[in-house]
Amino acid sequence: MAHWLLKSEPGEWGWNDQVQVDREAWSGVRNHLAARHLRSMRSGDTAFFYHSVTEKRIVGIVTIVGEAEPDPSDPSGKFVIVWVKAREAFPNPVTLAQIKADPDLAELPLVRQARLSVMPIPDAAWAKICELGGVAR
Hints:
The chain has five helices and six strands. It is of the alpha+beta class. Strands 2-5-4-3-1-6 form a six-stranded mixed sheet.
């Protein structure tokens, strides 16, 4: 099982929106590296749900429940969606500032490639962020 981070603007689609639906397509990704990461996701993988722009914090965990398929909002046919389901909210959201301040997390793409919207998270970093967020991994 792999771990990921998915960024969303809370004003467009936030954690509260995600928990209101059974599952939702993660769509609109137009960066080729991010799309490659979506294609690598498998059912059962987990991802941090990150509120970008104004909040810059991890607020919960989603499970990948449907693997890559064509993104219906992409007329070129080059990009894909995956399906996600809310799993667990973070009792203590983990901010980007906390992540940047932790030397164990300094190499995460979230720190090094700030504009990337979909990224892998190594197991050790996953465990550390879950601990900071107050959830069992």
